[in-house]
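INTERNAL AUDIT FORM
Audit reference: QA-55
Scope: verify that the stored structure record matches its stored sequence.
Auditor: D.O.
Record contents follow.
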Amino acid sequence: MPTTSGTGSEVARGAIIIVDDHRKLGFHSWHIVPKAAICDPELTLGLPPRLTAATGMDAIAHCMETFMSAAVNPPADGIALDGLERGWANIERATKNGQDREARFNLMSASMEGAMAFQKGLGCVHSLSHSLGGVDPRLHHGTLNAVFLPAVVRFNAHAESVQKARRLERMAHAMGLGSAGDIPEAIQDMNRRLGLPSGLAELGVGQDWYEKIIDGAMADHCHKTNPRIATREDYREMLAQSM
């Protein structure tokens, strides 16, 4: 029975554990999937605005990353796009008015759909946020996803599979934007309106953390399902853009 609209763990086959050496490890098994789940948006009405925003951006990141992934899974793509449309159109409403039941319903739908779709695979946003969340477990996963999304979208725009299937253009349409190039700035603007941090520096992350973050990102299970495989230098540039 989820009480936030973000992880989608009620339909997911994964679990995350932070171990003593600060690695944030992902585990996958169909035995983890619940036999039944109750998704009731009424359970999220009391969620504070900042947590509504951060978990909602987690759901949006799931939808966007899995849609950009190069793996072939048309049903997952359709689910991800519907989740993105619902999440993007309702996250600000749910954050500003937690009692908006229609917005809460659509945000919970986006959360569930994002997790249904991400069986296809995620990418660099999660590689980085998993790693950084292990370096400093106090940092919130959804908040990190929101901060990393613009830089990763820019990086993925050059991937052949993304360009061939016009994935950014299709995401822009679902988000009500004029063009694919508007996506990174629109995410940054949404983060500002939601009251989320504008960058990693605001969270206390320093450039001296980069190598440790990159070590974790390169080893993360989401690294290889990004549509464009990132090098250490690519990750360094994404971190710099996200500061």
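Auditor finding: record pair retrieved intact. The CA atoms of residues 68 and 162 lie 6 Å apart.
Action required: none
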